[in-house]
Amino acid sequence: MRPETEEKYIASQKRKTVFLSIGLGALYWIVESAIEAFIFNHESFISHLLKPGLHEIWMRFLTIGVITIALYARSLILIYKKTKTDLRENKERYRLLFQCSPVGIFHYDKDLHITECNDRFIVIAHLPPRKTIGLDLKMSKEEKVLLALRKALDGGEGVYEGLCDLSMGDDKTWVFLRTAPLFGPNNEVKSGVGIVEDITEQKETEATLRKSEENLSLYQTLINQSNDSVEVLDPETGCFLNVNKKTCSDLGYSREELLSMKVFDIDPFVNPSDFPEIIEDLRRTGGGVWNSVHLRKDGSTFPVEVSLKLVQLDQSYIVAVARDITERKKAEDALKEYEKRYHSLFENANDMIQSVLPDGHFLYVNPAWLKTMGYTLEELSGLTVFNILHPDYKTHCINTLKDVLSGKSKGNIEVTFVAKDGRLIHAEGNATVHMVDGKAVACNGIFRDVTEHKRMEEKLFQITHDWEDTFNSITDMVTVHDKDFNIIHANKAAEKILHLPILDITPQKCYRFYHGTDRPPEGCPSCDCLNTGLPSTTELYEPHLGMFIEITAIPRFDSNNNISGLIHIVRDITERKKLEDQLRQSQKMEAVGQLAGGIAHDFNNVLTAIIGYANILKLRLKDDPVKSNIDQILESSERGAHLTQSLLAFSRQQVSNPEPVDVIELISNMKKLLLRVIGEDIELTTILNSAAPDSDKKEPEEAGTLIVMADSIQIDQVLINLCTNARDAMPNGGRLTIETKKVALASLGFLKEERQFHKSDNNTAGNNGEFAEISVSDTGIGMDEKTRERIFEPFFTTKDIGKGTGLGLSIVYGIIKQHNGYIVCESESGKGTTFKIYLPTIKAEVEKTEPEEIPDTTETPHTVLLAEDEFIVRNLTKQVLEEFGYKVIEAFDGEDAVTKFIDNKNNIELLIFDIIMPKMSGKEAYDRIRKIKPDIKALLTSGYPADFINKNELIKDGINFVVKPISPAKLLKKVKEALAN
Question: Are strands 937-942 and 910-914 parallel, antiparallel or unpaired?
């Protein structure tokens, strides 16, 4: 590359780099501003759709993109710097080759004026140096020279060999001239270049050799003394005309054999068809050097370096000098392999390799070093090893460097480097000196990053301490034993409870401290564990310790999977044993609760049909005398519904409808019903007070209010059950007293330790510390203590077979607990029984309930999709809806409902789905339909208990829901509300 071209190229690379850096900065600013303004603006539409953390994620992606482009720009800068360096090196190399060439080189323009030449040309041309540049070559007297010069300007190559006077004088010189064109950017010829070789000597030698046979003999003698093979070839045929002794010895042929052979016989790389082209190339260049192989007589080959020269004497000859380079090739290959291995080892080593100068500056580092420390080679150019050392290691490093440079190798060096990002890199390694001509020029070091190892050591140390702390914080007794039952380690709990001595002094047998015996007891879990190799657990009472304990023996194994000992985990289960009886009691009651909840669904479907059809008959038989019978059916059905709710109250699974209830009014309304329940031989007395006994206000019977939050139906069931039991306890008649009053929490001694009353929120009673007490007392036979402890158990009864199920008081217990209340029993044999119920009071007014009214027939014929798997309930619901003007599409399960909706989606306005159906539930069908029509309205029904519905998340807030059994009036009301909302 010419100097002016080089400078233009460098300038263009600088401009590209500057423009790229400016463009990167502007692009980053514009994109970041645009994103902030239009996408992540708090008022923009997109910002409401994106999650809050997406801005940070996007900006990280943007930053990564810009960093990637910046890294690309950096690579361009590195390429630019390397190119600039290469250009300078090429320029210097060109200058040296140009000036030091053994042949004359000159440039000339289209007017045949010399524009540049080397010193050798000036010598060959016999020209003064100052007059050479600008010399007009057209002044040459040799037409063939001018023809060769002009041929290059025409785009070809010119050759001239002969006498020539380049100084335009009469002193001619034998020269070999070759010219070639120089092309411009558009492939046009800009100028020419010529190579001139002074062959005067060669010509004189050739003339001398022709004149003297002695010279020929001398020539043969000389070439025979050569250490290289010398061969003279006929350029026309490739036949050997002469060879020296070295050629014969190398190839294994005699001289006579070789003189009858051709060059193709010993050089497999030279094809006869290519030989004329080789000769033509030699005629143009005069000679050349290339690498090839020679074929010996025995068929083996060896590498050679062949130097060819076309010699013109009486005729043209090719002189080939072939040097056996077998050893050189081996050395070169070995050197390349060594360099390859060293470079691969250096580049791929996981350890950090560095070489620093005596002043601490870095000479080189490997990629692992750069990756670990986070630096680049450019950043290291201005740093020393002391700049990246932790301050605590600088003095030690200086002393180590001095020792290594003095000839001492250092091993097991521990040092802490500071990475570019501030991380501390702990390293271990060794250092050696690098000598050149007996002088220490650098310190080489190989270091291994042991930061993670150090961290793991610290973590292991911490884990060990954490394990010890955890081991000693376990409240259970934990001891570690060997195979001979000796305790070798124990936690603090075991040391304290077992009163263990110091275990390091003398071995202690585990059975002495756990069992107080001299040998392992019968059924020892340790023995089982040692015999089977499996964990073993045993529960037993230890008088030695005065407690029930649970012993778990776990085997320990060595590296060969042989049992080496045991681990004992011993837990004090004394309190657990005491609670097991209470747990069994709770499980009995839970079993009945599950049974009651399981039958609720089917029973409610039956009641729905009975209540529904009875209401339809009642509407159609307005003045018929049979209407009174229908009222009896409805009343019995309602009692059946109450019975279902009562069963569910025991299991705490029914859909409860708590509301403010006046206990006094509720008991007053039930008085007639209770009289029929208990019979005529029992006297019923009610004492209904709304104030505390010590209050100055004395209210008359049936006066005042006592408000609690309760389900009135369930409280009715409680009173009926208690009165029925009281009746059975007075077979010969007696007196039954129901009394109400308000009591304070402080006066309830048995409740003083019950803290849950203090946790009630503002919407439940009890936060004022007052309760409504309802006591039901009889003068019956009473109960002993053993019977009294079991009265709330399910299926426990004192009645004869067939006269009781034992569920009454269990149901009462469940209802009261569901109302956050308490029930206690006071009884003695022969002295009657009193049940006292405590419900938290509230400050609220009781809403007056109006009788259900069936709404008017709908004026707009709404279309309803009804999905119910029970035929009788589905048919009843359809009849009620059609009776009042609704159009009903029936479906017998969830899948059928989805199919029917797809067929009629433009007409259906309301979905009435049973939640639990075969194939597909009502809730699942509703969710699928919502995907088709999001604004569809729905009313879900179920006869299953509420806790089952809630536990399985079958309904969510905002969905209309109604519990079976449901009357036609309530159904129509719910449908109207669902359509309105």
Answer: parallel
Instruction: Round to whole Å and give the CA distance between 559 and 574.
Output: 38
What is the side-by-side strand order in the sheet with 114-117? 114-117, 104-108, 189-198, 173-183, 158-164
pLDDT digit string, tens, across residues 202-241: 887 777 766 655 656 666 777 777 788 888 888 888 898 8
Q: How far apart are CA 270 and CA 909, in angstroms?
A: 97
The mean predicted confidence, pLDDT, of the chain is 77
| CA–CA dist 722, 534 (Å, integer) | 56
**Gap between the Cα atoms of 905 and 101, Å rounded:** 97
Q: Where are the beta strands (DSSP E) in 236-300?
A: 240-243, 287-295
Coil, helix or strand at residue 512: helix
Highest mean pLDDT among 632-636, 661-665, 703-707: 661-665
Measured at the alpha carbon of residue 843, what is the angle toward residues 838 and 847, in degrees to the nearest 5?
100
Nearest to 385 by CA among 450, 445, 319: 445
Taking 70 as the threshold, does the pLDDT of residue 52 lie above it?
no
CA angle at residue 424 from 422 to 430, to 5 degrees?
130
Task: Summarize pLDDT for 76-116 with one digit per residue, the tens.
Answer: 777 777 777 777 777 777 777 777 788 888 888 988 888 88
- Distance of alpha carbon 752 from alpha carbon 746, whole angstroms: 7
DSSP letter for each residue of 867-926: E-S-HHHHHHHHHHHHHTT-EEEEESSHHHHHHHHHHTTTT--EEEEESS-SSS-HHHHH
- Bridge partner residues of 656 (DSSP): none
What pTM does this model have? Answer: 0.34
> In what helix (H) or strand (E) does residue 549 lie, and over which residues does it extend?
strand 547-557
* Residue 951 in this model has a pLDDT that exceeds 80: no
Cβ–Cβ under 8 Å, residues 220 and 242: yes
Q: Give residue for tokens 């100052």.
A: 130
The two tokens of residue 351 are 């350890």
> Strand 887-891 to strand 863-867: parallel, antiparallel, or no bridges (unpaired)?
parallel
Whether the bond between 965 and the residue before it is cis, its omega within 30 degrees of 0, is yes
For 561, the 3-state DSSP assignment is coil
CA 324 to chain centre: 64
Angle at 978 between CA 874 and CA 893, to 5 degrees: 30
Query: How does strand 547-557 pair with strand 536-542?
Result: antiparallel
Q: How far is CA 275 from CA 39, 132, 280, 293, in A?
A: 75, 40, 9, 16
Among 39-48, 472-481, 595-604, 804-813, the least confident range:
39-48
State both tokens at 188.
Answer: 């046009």
pLDDT at 754: 45
* Tens digits of residue pLDDT in 755-800: 433 333 333 344 457 889 999 999 998 888 877 777 776 555 555 4
Largest CA distance in the chain: 172
CB within 8 Å of 273: residues ≥ 6 apart:
none
Scanning 766-852, the segments in alpha helix (DSSP H) are 785-788, 808-818
Q: In what order do the strands lie in the sheet with 301-312?
A: 240-243, 229-233, 316-324, 301-312, 287-295
Give me the percent of the chain exceeding a pLDDT of 90: 7
What average pLDDT does this structure show over 459-473? 75
> What count of other Cβ atoms lies within 10 Å of the Cβ of residue 127?
19
Local confidence band at 833 (pLDDT 50, 70, 90 cut-offs): very high
Residue 762: what residue type? N
Distances (CA, A) of 678 to 638, 719, 722, 812, 813: 21, 12, 10, 18, 21
Nearest Cα residue to 262 out of 298, 288, 296, 234: 234
Q: Tell me, what's the pLDDT at 890?
A: 93
Tokens of 600: 């609720």
What lies within 8 Å, CB to CB, of 645 at 6+ separation is 654, 711, 713, 714, 717
